[in-house]
Each structure stands twice: as C-alpha cells, then as structure tokens.
Amino acid sequence: MKPIKLIIFLIYCVSIINCTPKKQQTLTVLQFNIWQEGTVIENGYNAVINEIINSNADLIALSEVRNYNNTNLNERLVASLKEKGFTFYSEKSEDSGILSKYPIMEQTVVFPLKNDHGSISKAIINVNGSKIAFYSGHLDYLNCALYLPRGYDGSTWEKLNTPVTDIQEIEKINLQSQRDDAIKSFIKDAKNEIKKGSIVIYGGDNNEPSHLDWTAVTKNLYDHNGVVMPWNVSLNLEKNGFIDTYRTVFPNPVTHPGFTYPANNTAINIEKLAWSPTADDRDRIDFIFYYPDARIKLNNSKVFGPKSDISKNKRVLENTQDFFLEPLAIWPTDHKGVISEFTLILE
C-alpha cells in the first residue's frame, strides 16, 4: 500500500474507533438512614426492604446499622431481598453499611465507630468492569450545632436561654464533634482511590447541614436567626473537589430546600420526631457526593420519603418545588433519603 493511501486508511480507522458509541448504563445511588435497623416503627424492617426495592437503587449507603442481638444485618437484608427476587451483595459492617447490586471486591472501614461518634465504610465495587469506590457515612450526632441558632443544645437538646447566633461560637462547638475527623479520613482515602483510577461516590447522614443551604437568602428562614454558616464538612468536601448531587441539580435552597430531617412519620407519635419542639429545625443533613470523572455524569436527584416534615412540634406539608419518590406505605425512619441517578460510561 502506498504511503499516502496508508495514511488515509489509518485516519479512517481512527475515525471509526473514535465514533464508535461507548457503552453506557444508568447507575442509581441511594443514601438511606434506616433508624435503628427499622426497629423503631412497627413492621419497620419489612418497610426497609420494600423501600429499598421501591428506590430501584444499584448502590445503597445505609446509616444506623446496629446488628442487634449479635446478628448480621447486612446478611439478613441480602436474604430478605433474595426472597423477593432481588440479588444484592453486602458484607458485615457497623453503623454505616453498604448494599450493592454488583459484586463487592473488598470492603474496609475508613473511620471506625467508637462510642457512637460516627463511622465511614468503603466498598470497592465492580460495575460491569468499572471500579467504583463507594463510601457510606454516618457521622457523629453529638455537638450537633445546627440546633444552636434554633435555641437548643446540640448534645442534650435542652432548650437554651437564647439562641446562639455567633458564628465563631457555633463553629467552636461544631468542631468538638468528630464529623470533621471522619470526613478528613474519607477525603484522604478517596484521593488515594482516585489516583488508583476508581470512580468515587459518597453517601452519608452527615448530621450537619450544608454551607450551600445556610446562605444570605435563607438566613431568615427555618429559624436560622440571621446566621450564614460555613458548615465545615460540606465546605471541606467542596474545597477538595467533591460535588453535592442534590444542590448541583437544584442550586436554589429556597425553592428546593431538599429537607431530609426531621421527616414526618405518621406511624409514630410526634414526640419521637421533634428534638427541638419549639423550633423549625428542618434541614438537609443527608447527602450524596461524587468526584468529577469523565466516566460518570450526574443526571438527576430527588428526595426519597414523605413530603411532610416536623416543624415546631407539628406535622408540616412542604410547599416546595422539590421532587420526591414517596413511600409505598409504612415509612420506616425519621429521615428522608436521597436518590441520585448517574450515567456511567463503561470501561
């Protein structure tokens, strides 16, 4: 073959390769606090199973895995889902658990649970040839400073004489929790996974709001009492390149607040749901984050759970533009979950 024809032929071959459509698939991720394994609500465990199926999620980050009575909740969930015709993979964990429709190559603890101060687990998952480092977090619930501007202590939940609105004081108390330690451990581990070529996704009940929600436009809403707060966990994640899926799809915290806590649950007395009964403490504390990667594209995100919340010791129906996947029947928890859908470019 003459050189000029060879060059034309090679250019043609390269163009054919570059124009060949890459294989894609939808990847749906769920973050789901199951409130003490669904034990608080009557028939709550069965509701957890039914809502996992309802979510149609491929990867699920669970919070409040307790393994009560020396049982293995992850093993039990897998068996219960199999009885209903759904195959999932999981390994035993404590506090933060992981369910996957795809094989788990390995699972490790990134931030261990000590004295109920939160945890983060990680699973390396093979999704049709693509390696995903999937993290499940349930961060420290103490020194929960979101209550301070609302006039309540963040560890005892006793009412304060006056709301705390000084940002430095709020931050000081907030940093007494181990949430920042946990998220720093996640960021360090995730950066190593990124270097290894993994796609990184995190789902967690962070027990801390987002700095994207406590802004100038919301400072006089939801009993923020004028506070514009640079919440440390979300700010640290953003500074290190991680993307908040819900707030990316819906950037306006007024039209789409995306509240996940406290969720209304008609199956239980309101006293079990209201930690600061005279305040409006609706907030978004459950999240899905991911690290930008050419192999994954965020499509949409929605709130998973009832449309109504608890505010000032009342059941309140949301008047927002948020999108919801509502429960089938019994809702098993006091949180709402987050569902985010991605397009995954398969390797």
Give the SSE map.
Blueprint: H1 3-19, E1 24-33, H2 35-38, H3 44-55, E2 59-65, H4 73-83, E3 95-100, E4 104-111, E5 118-127, E6 130-139, H5 167-174, H6 179-195, E7 199-205, H7 232-239, E8 243-244, H8 245-249, E9 286-290, E10 296-304, E11 308-311, E12 314-317, E13 324-325, E14 337-345
Parallel strand pairs: 1-2, 6-7, 10-13
Antiparallel strand pairs: 1-14, 2-3, 4-5, 5-6, 7-9, 8-9, 10-14, 11-12
Helix pairs in contact: 6-7
Explain this structure.
About 4% of the residues have low confidence. The relative contact order is 0.16. The chain is of the alpha+beta class and 347 residues long. The strands form three sheets. It has a six-stranded mixed beta sheet. It is built from eight helices and 14 strands. Helix 6 runs parallel beside helix 7.
Q: Specify Rg, calculated over alpha carbons.
A: 22 Å
Largest sheet: 6 strands, mixed
Helix fraction by DSSP (H/I, runs of at least 4): 10-25%
- What strand line-up does the widest sheet have? 3-2-1-14-10-13
Q: Residue ranges: pLDDT <50 for 5 or more in a row?
A: 6-19
How many β-strand stretches? Answer: 14
Write the H/E string, N to C.
Answer: HEHHEHEEEEHHEHEHEEEEEE
Task: State the helix count.
Answer: 8
**How far is the N terminus from the C terminus?**
34 Å
Structural class: alpha+beta
Question: What is the overall silhouette?
Answer: globular
What kind of assembly state do the chains in view correspond to? single chain
Strand content: 25-35%
Mean pLDDT: 94
Offer a few descriptive terms.
single chain, 347 residues, alpha+beta, 6-stranded mixed β-sheet, 8 helices, 14 strands, 27% strand
